[in-house]
């Protein structure tokens, strides 16, 4: 079953500020509201027991044709953020639930989506996958599944992109349900994505940190209010305007995939934190499907 669905932003700054042993750069502090929000998320999920798998849809694994899935059991390497190599040089060693990844792949293919298993053992896992999984489960003691972001929104239009992401989300939910495993779903994307082009000399200097502009903030608040009110259908309806106005990462489809997998929840989401990173808007938001099932 789906234990939780999470909007899980992936700024590498949050890993940098946490100073995990896997990351080479060291920080003094920074972005506490978001980092503490991830702590609140982890505690919330832990109350429902340990998950069996993390399933993440990442906007930074971009595939020109179709939806790809990691298909090798073990990946180990160094992930370097191409924009912030001074903040994120992360030594990862992760396990993939290939059996469940293949099951999602097959469910998606059965409804006409173009799919592919990525079976290159030398593949370098993207930082959007690594960061979201690390912040959600820093112990790295359970396997993950990573799903790429296709170019449907860019090559076709919003309607085609939405239809594919909802179908992919529903395929994910069916495969998880048939597996009997307890999964946490992570939509690895920020919200508004206009950002500063100059970094402070001290990256973690919080006196320099604020949302890029007020209009962007207002759009983020509108989206979060819809989440808090359980109005996810309305949320998806306004996503094209929201994305255009805020240059949001929502155009990669991760959030729509998540809402499709959750069956467009009508119960309130829990916003654990909202904050800015280099001007971008980031929210850690959790949906607890037990509320829909009447278990909570």
What does the secondary structure layout of this molecule look like, with pairings?
Elements: E1 2-7, H1 12-18, H2 32-46, E2 53-63, E3 67-70, E4 74-80, E5 89-95, H3 98-110, E6 115-118, H4 127-136, E7 144-150, H5 152-155, H6 158-179, E8 183-187, H7 214-228, H8 232-246, H9 254-261, E9 270-277, E10 280-287, H10 290-293
Helix pairs in contact: 3-6, 6-9, 7-8
Could you please describe the fold and organization of this structure?
The chain starts with a strand and ends with a helix. The chain is built from ten helices and ten strands. The relative contact order is 0.22. Helix 3 (98-110) crosses helix 6 (158-179) and helix 7 packs antiparallel against helix 8. The longest helix has 22 residues, at 158-179. The chain has helices spanning 12-18, 32-46, 98-110, 127-136, 152-155, 158-179, 214-228, 232-246, 254-261, 290-293, and strands spanning 2-7, 53-63, 67-70, 74-80, 89-95, 115-118, 144-150, 183-187, 270-277, 280-287. The protein has a single domain (2-293), classed as 3-Layer(aba) Sandwich (Protocatechuate 4,5-dioxygenase, Chain B). The strands form three sheets. Strands 7-2-8-1-10-9 form a six-stranded mixed beta sheet, sandwiched between helices. The chain has 296 residues and is of the alpha/beta class. A hairpin with a 2-residue loop joins strand 9 (270-277) and strand 10. It is globular and about 50 Å long.
